[in-house]
Design brief:
The complex is a heterodimer of chains A (about 300) and B (about 525).
Chain A (H helix, E strand, L loop, with lengths): L3 H28 L4 H9 L3 H11 L5 H13 L13 H37 L2 H16 L2 H15 L9 H27 L3 H8 L4 H31 L1 H6 L5 H10 L3 H29 L5
Helix pairs in contact in A: 1-13, 5-6, 5-8, 5-10, 5-12, 5-13, 6-8, 7-8, 8-10, 9-10, 10-13, 12-13
Chain B lengths: L3 E12 L2 E12 L3 E5 L6 H9 L6 E3 L4 E4 L2 E2 L5 H7 L4 E4 L3 H4 L6 H11 L6 H13 L5 H4 L9 H12 L6 E5 L7 H18 L2 E6 L2 H7 L2 E6 L2 E7 H6 L4 H14 L12 E12 L9 E12 L3 E5 L6 H8 L7 E6 L2 E2 L9 H6 E4 L13 H12 L7 H11 L16 H13 L5 E5 L7 H18 L2 E6 L2 H7 L2 E6 L2 E7 H6 L4 H9 L3 H4 L6
Parallel strand pairs in B: 3-9, 3-10, 7-8, 8-9, 14-19, 14-20, 17-18, 18-19
Antiparallel strand pairs in B: 1-2, 1-4, 1-5, 5-6, 10-11, 12-13, 12-15, 15-16, 20-21
Helix pairs in contact in B: 4-7, 5-7, 7-8, 8-20, 14-16, 16-17
Chain lengths: ~300, ~525
């Protein structure tokens, strides 16, 4: 039972973090000068009276505190308000965008982790220099080649020259490009960690027991490397949540990133706040999950 | 003599072209124990690893080397064949049981793994066998222990689990590589006794790798002495220990015997006290609002008179090193008073003035970590002088050379870096550095624990002769009874943060009054007591 107490504490801490972030987002949105009425005014030429009436209708003439209470109260009921520009409920827009981003982040992370694990485990068990060179190349690739550059080249080669893939809306290429990038970030530290883990005393004990290499790897080496895998996965996933924006824009994918970017251009506060809230809450959720899993894996941490 | 269970023929191991073990030959008879004795770098652990087929990457077994188990050659160069023999016909236990057990698995699961390797399926039979094994290694409440994780056990319990796991197949050969070196003295004795009893019950042959001559004398029938990868001497225990033929063996034995002979001149006239500790308490602060703080010192009172040595004897967790840190002014106690050279330290919140610091110096356990690897010895030794004194450049170099000469080093050592010195030389530098300011009190926190036995004695002799000449008082913290007794005039025995006994060194060793002291002293593997061995 005592094992679950720290887990509960982690969850509470995560919730507090999320609340703080949401409040900060709200404040930051209001610090930027100019509101939606200004932007629409520039586009459509509103009179001062019309603008005033519009502000009252949208509720953005009230005090900041009142606006925050209105907004967070609604959000708790799953109600993010209406888009100022399109007049449709924000929750509907989120429901459209969220699966696209989640699929992009989740899919590319799965590709990256799987590739990194396979390469690192293979290199450790075979002590092959070829694989180590491949690992280094992939690592350098992920540092040196930004995904949006690779994306451009990919579109140029596969969509325009070869004509194999569509220019816009091609999820597959985006997944592969981000996946490779993730694998490059994960594989090198993972390889180093495994190199150390195989010479750990308790792994030697397992070998002295006469266990088969597969058993030694699965039951003794990988658990020892799991804290590093978890910590790295947390970082990579966190980068993905905020970092797929460029790829969404490049490939014309209607995800959270595109949604937030368009909303910022149009000062569409409810959409900006909702999108950023979803992004940051998912960051907190990822970190909290990583924390909890780390505690559950390692009996010494509870 | 019975037939050889384990025969090692011309065993040689090398890293690249550098030999680590050269042409080692020995025979271990069935049901007996053979000890391989050696200091660090002697190749004893590599010999054991080679026999198990567990040499670390980069080490190579010579092609002509042969190891016979039960009369048949081991397939040392075929990993998949060796795997079938490991954990069945031969098993191994290691030095540090904490890191040798998988922290992510319960001990029951780890033993179950060894049993599955033997073909014992999951289920009631397996569970019974695990409990039976834990009972064999004399663990209390085996049914509860099965579900424990390694970190929830003491070091002695962990090593018992390791032994239980190794005995799962009732192997013909058990290799024990320094099985007690990481354990406290009382626990060491228990584990050695356990190995003996297990051998009597299962008729296991034991290959016992150790640096401790007394432990080897206690457990083994035969001894092989290794030095730099070569066999120096081998034979029955009685012969090797009581009539050593080779110079190196004689040195090893004499070091032990020297410790067991009482020191002359223990009773120097006592001067005024340099250090008085009264009711000192300290607790490590709690790590969270709901956690308890950890009390490590509980009402310590001790006097130390000028020119004398007070030994603090205790096992790990007794609080002895915390006491050293408090006296050295590196941490502040929660309660109590320290009078240093007659001045109250509580009055200045235990912050030492530069003047006091000059008069009170400390030497730490690990000479590898205590010297900054980026500074030469000269730079390292200049630091305290520049810190504590107004720098007078003239004659500084010759003063440093003199202080190195005092600890048996040469002027040439001043230009070296720490990694170019041996462990013993580094500890000598630390001692010379501490003595530069001419302290009246020297705190020695386990200063020889990281060193080999022969080096230990040289360092201890240096410290003693310097003390005789310079007349400083010493607070000597240690866990080895023989060493603490050899150095000290008085001994304070610490147990769980309290001083359980305080008195004259000889008296405490010869006639301990407190039950804990009696237990501690009974567990010390003395050579004299261990020399009568059934196999010799």
């Amino acid at each position: 039972m005592r094992r679950y107490l720290p887990v509960a504490a982690t969850v509470i801490r995560g919730a507090a973090q999320a609340l703080g972030i949401v409040f900060l987002i709200f404040l930051l949105c209001r610090v930027v000068p100019g509101d939606v009425v200004d932007v629409l005014g520039l586009e459509g030429g509103l009179t001062a009276d019309q603008a005033e009436a519009m502000r009252r209708e949208l509720g953005i003439d009230k005090s900041l505190v009142d606006q925050f209470l209105d907004w967070s109260g609604g959000m708790l009921q799953g109600e993010f308000g209406r888009s100022l520009r399109y007049g449709v409920p924000v929750s509907g827009m989120l429901l459209h965008a969220l699966p696209v981003s989640a699929m992009l982040a989740g899919g590319s992370f799965a590709i990256g982790l799987a590739l990194a694990l396979v390469l690192a485990v293979a290199a450790t068990s075979t002590r092959s220099t070829v694989l180590d060179v491949a690992i280094n190349a992939l690592n350098i690739w992920s540092i040196a080649a930004p995904t949006f550059c690779v994306g451009f080249i990919g579109i140029l080669v596969f969509s325009i020259w070869l004509g194999w893939l569509p220019v816009l809306g091609g999820v597959g290429m985006a997944l592969v490009i981000i996946g490779l990038d993730n694998a490059g970030q994960l594989v090198k530290p993972l390889r180093e960690e495994l190199r150390e883990c195989v010479s750990l005393p308790h792994v030697r004990t397992a070998r002295a027991k006469g266990l088969a290499p597969m058993q030694v790897a699965v039951a003794h080496v990988l658990p020892a490397a799991s804290p590093i895998v978890l910590a790295l996965s947390g970082i990579v996933l966190a980068n993905l949540v905020s970092g797929t924006i460029t790829m969404e824009v490049l490939f014309g994918l209607p995800g959270l990133g595109s949604l937030a970017l368009n909303a910022i251009h149009g000062r569409d506060y409810p959409v900006i706040m909702a999108a950023i809230t979803v992004i940051s809450v998912s960051l907190v959720v990822i970190n909290t999950l990583v924390d909890i899993i780390a505690r559950l894996i390692d009996p010494r941490m509870s | 003599m019975t037939e050889g269970m384990l025969e090692v023929r011309a065993l040689a191991v090398a890293i690249g072209n550098r030999p680590v073990v050269s042409e080692v030959n020995f025979t271990l008879p069935r049901g007996q124990t053979l000890a391989i004795i050696g200091e660090s770098g002697s190749g004893k652990s590599m010999t054991a690893a080679a026999i198990m087929g567990l040499l670390p990457a980069g080490l190579r077994l010579a092609s002509h080397s042969e190891v016979l188990l039960g009369g048949k050659p081991l397939p040392l160069r075929d990993e998949s064949l060796m795997r079938r023999i490991r954990g069945r016909r031969m098993a191994m236990i290691f030095q540090d049981p904490m890191s040798c057990l998988n922290p992510y698995m319960t001990v029951g699961a780890q033993i179950a793994e060894a049993l599955r390797h033997l073909g014992v399926r999951r289920g009631a039979e397996q569970r019974e066998r695990i409990v039976e094994l834990l009972r064999l290694v004399e663990l209390p409440t085996p049914e509860v222990m099965v579900r424990r994780y390694p970190h929830q056990m003491s070091g002695g319990q962990q090593q018992r689990v390791m032994i239980a796991m190794a005995l799962a197949s009732e192997p013909e050969l058990l290799i024990a590589d320094e099985p007690t070196s990481a354990l406290d003295a009382t626990v060491q004795a228990e584990v050695l006794q356990l190995l003996e009893r297990v051998q009597q019950r299962l008729h296991t042959s034991i290959l016992f790798i150790t640096h401790d001559l007394a432990a080897a004398a206690r457990l083994a029938h035969d001894i092989v002495v290794l030095q730099s990868g070569r066999v120096v001497e081998q034979g029955p225990v009685g012969q090797v220990i009581h009539a050593p033929r080779q110079a190196y063996t004689k040195l090893l034995v004499s070091v032990r015997q020297m410790l067991e002979r009482p020191q002359a001149g223990h009773d120097r006239p006592s001067e005024r006290p340099v250090l008085v500790i009264r009711d000192l308490s300290y607790a490590y602060p709690a790590r969270g609002p709901l956690k308890k703080s950890n009390k490590v010192l509980d009402g310590i009172s001790l006097p130390l008179h000028g020119g004398r040595t007070l030994g603090i004897l205790g096992e790990s967790g007794s609080g002895k090193s915390t006491l050293a840190l408090i006296v050295a002014g590196l941490i502040s106690p929660d309660m109590g008073e320290i009078e240093l050279f007659g001045d109250s330290m509580a009055a200045v919140r235990f912050r030492m003035s530069p003047r006091q610091r000059r008069r009170c110096q400390i030497v730490f356990q690990n000479p590898y970590g205590a010297l900054n690897p980026r500074l030469t010895i000269e730079q390292t030794m200049r630091e305290p002088i520049e810190l504590l004194e107004t720098p007078g450049r003239t004659g500084l170099r010759s003063r440093l050379e003199q202080s190195l000469a005092d600890v048996g080093l040469e002027p040439g050592h001043l230009n070296r870096y720490p990694h170019q010195l041996s462990g013993g030389q580094r500890q000598r530098v630390c001692i010379a550095r501490a003595l530069l300011s001419g302290p009246e009190l020297l705190i020695c926190d386990e200063i020889v624990s990281a060193l080999d036995a022969t080096v230990q004695m040289q360092v201890l002799e240096t410290v003693r002769s310097l003390q005789r000449r310079l007349g400083f008082a010493m607070l000597f913290i240690g866990h080895d009874i023989e060493i603490v007794r050899w150095v000290s005039d008085d001994i304070a025995v610490m147990h769980r943060g309290r001083v359980v006994e305080l008195g004259n060194a000889e008296q405490i060793v010869q006639a301990p009054a407190h039950s804990y002291t009696r237990r501690l002293i009974a567990s010390a593997p003395a050579l004299a007591r261990a020399s009568v061995n059934p196999g010799a």
